[in-house]
Amino acid sequence: MTSKEKELNQLLNVLYDSVTQINNWQTFGNEVVRLTGTCACEVSVYDPSTQQLQALNLPFLAESDLRFYKEEMINLNPRIPLILKAPNNYNVYSDQFAFDVESIKKSAFFEWVRSLGVQFMAGNIFTLDDNSVFAFLLHQEIKDGLVSIKNLEFLLSLFPHIKRAANLSLLLNRTTVKAQFFSNYLEQATFGIAYLNQFSKVVEMNNLAATYIQSTLLLEVSSQGALGTTTRSNKKVRIFLAQLKKLATGQNREACTLSLRRSHTNTISIIAVPVSKEWSEQTFYLNYPTIALYFIDIGLKQSSEGIQRICAFLGLSPRESQIAEMLYLGHQPKYISHELDIAESTVRAFVRLIHKKLGIHRQSELVRLLAELNSHFFGTN
To answer: Which of 285, 303, 321 is a domain's end point?
Structure first.
């Protein structure tokens, strides 16, 4: 085996390790950058139905530049329409074949790209098994000019391996998430629960949530996985879904609720709360949920115990519920630690867990959320 073949084998080992270790995608990218003499690697995932970015890994950008790209420049990026079409046209994308020199010179987007010290880009683009578009891209420094034919050929040789590894990651993640979530939490829950991404598409949900959605006759999950209205839906449902979209995209961070009568006699209340970005990214792979929906049968509320019952509905443990109730009553960690006979540092650790689970950051947000839900379910404050 030649040294070049040995180097390629080592690179592919790193790639296939990324199937089970998500951080290895960056390790793999760094190795490809080193072997090709390019300056940076990008991994991005797009939803072709909405033409929106689902996930982006651009480690060479400073946080401020990344935020500016997502907020301002992404809508000016002429590469995105081509990336979305690329899986149907070719396996290796390259700027130098997609744009003429004059259009690059006149483009406000490329002017911003050049200010970062890079210009031309090339990489592998393909459709994953869940129909999202996956792009593994290399960025070239301005001084290095066009991406070389040698590097394009190298990318072409990597294409089947990168595609296979990405789909294996997706499959493994789905299997792992379902095994962990449905067996350990979702299917054991006494209430319906569904996780939605920023496009209001269902990422995961339990059977109880699916049953509740179907029984209301006013909501449905489309064949593309999007939560939407039925022909029987009313204004109240449409307003709630509009609120969901704002919650899912981060335009609003406050919980929203909806009460619907089932096809039988009981009423179902739906609570939508944001989930923390950190928890979402640690639990799911690429298709991150941004909100959780809780479906609660109001017929169960007669035996509830107010705030602690709501905390249980929201997935808090008994100890977390106990501390959340005391925070709701205005008590501080020092007082709580004395009353429960536990260390103040332990109380603060529980507070951080509660905030993380509910997607909030301050005690005032917790009080407002529990007060709204308590009033909504039990008519009390």
So the answer is: 303
CATH of the domain at 370: 1.10.10.10
53 is a domain residue: yes
Question: SS3 sequence, the chain?
Answer: CCHHHHHHHHHHHHHHHCCCCCCHHHHHHHHHHHHHCCCEEEEEEEECCCCEEEEEECCCCCHHHHHHHHHHHHHHCCHHHHHHHHHHHCCEEEHHHHCCHHHHHHCHHHHHHHHCCEEEEEEEEEECCCCCEEEEEEEEEHHHCCCCHHHHHHHHHHHHHHHHHHHHHHHHHHHHHHHHHHHHCHHHCCCEEEEEECCCEEEEECHHHHHHHHHHCCEEECCCCEEEECCCCCHHHHHHHHHHHHHHCCCCCCCEEEEEECCCCCEEEEEEEECCHHHHHHHCCCCCEEEEEEEEEHHHHHHCCCHHHHHHHCCCCHHHHHHHHHHHCCCCHHHHHHHHCCCHHHHHHHHHHHHHHHCCCCHHHHHHHHHHHHHHHHCCC
Single pTM value for the model: 0.53
Q: Which amino acid is at 312?
A: A
Q: Which of 176, 172, 135, 166 is nearest to 16 (CA)?
A: 166
**Residues 362 and 311 occupy one common structural domain:** yes
* Same-domain check for residues 297 and 344: no
Q: What is the pLDDT of residues 229-261, one digit of tens each?
A: 887 878 888 898 898 888 888 787 777 778 777
Cα radius of gyration rounded to whole Å, the chain: 24
Range of the domain at 328: 304-381
The predicted-structure confidence for 135-194, as pLDDT tens digits, reads as follows 999 999 999 988 999 999 999 999 989 988 888 877 766 656 555 554 455 666 667 888
Q: Are residues 253 and 282 in the same domain?
A: yes
Cα pseudo-dihedral 343, 344, 346, 352, rounded to 10: 170
Shared domain check, 51 and 109? yes
In the chain, the number of structural domains is 3
